Amino acid sequence: EVQLVESGGGLVQVGGSLRLSCTASGFAFSTSALTWIRQAPGKGLVWVSGIYSDGRTYYRDSVKGRFTISRDNAKNTVYLQMNNLRPEDTATYFCAIDVSDTFAQTTQYEYDYWGQGTQVTVSS
Fold first, then answer.
1. How deeply is 69 buried, as exposed, middle or buried, from its count of CB atoms within 10 A (0-12, 13-18, 19+)?
2. Could you give phi then psi for residue 88, rounded to 5 degrees?
3. pLDDT tens-digit map of 14-32
4. 89 closest CA partner among 31, 46, 34
């Protein structure tokens, strides 16, 4: 059974930090591409960051220098360290999986698996 369990969201003030985690089971995690996507209330899905199995990482411009994606294959977990948070970072954050290790830089793909989402709220 495939499971993706997200945690680490919460309420933080402007300039604060959070670390999101997504722990997976039931598929070949270490050879999959991993992606973080967010959705603000009433808005569409926005790609945030991705990491491939070889360790290549990518970020949208608005989070470069503030967010860091990483993976720990021994724990089947992908992380998103978020520093210097801004109100516009407020959203539900989802982890998404591509087992083909091809897609980690887009929302325009039907990812194989999605997490349940974790809420991040940044107060101004």
1. buried
2. -70, -10
3. 999 999 999 999 999 999 9
4. 46
Read off the pLDDT band of 68 (50, 70, 90).
Answer: very high
Under a CB-based contact definition with an 8 Å cutoff, are residues 95 and 115 in contact?
A: yes
Q: 61 in helix, strand or coil?
A: helix
Cβ atoms within 10 Å, residue 23: 18
State how far the Cα of 69 lies from the Cα of 67, in Å rounded to an integer. Answer: 7
As a whole number of angstroms, the distance between CA 62 and CA 24 comes to 27
d(CA 38, CA 43) in angstroms, rounded, equals: 10
Pairwise CA distance, residues 12 & 33, whole Å: 29
**Token couple for 75:** 């724990």
Are 121 and 104 in contact, with CB atoms under 8 Å apart? Answer: no
Q: How far apart are CA 85 and CA 107, in angstroms?
A: 22
Considering the chain, what percentage of its residues have pLDDT values greater than 90? 92
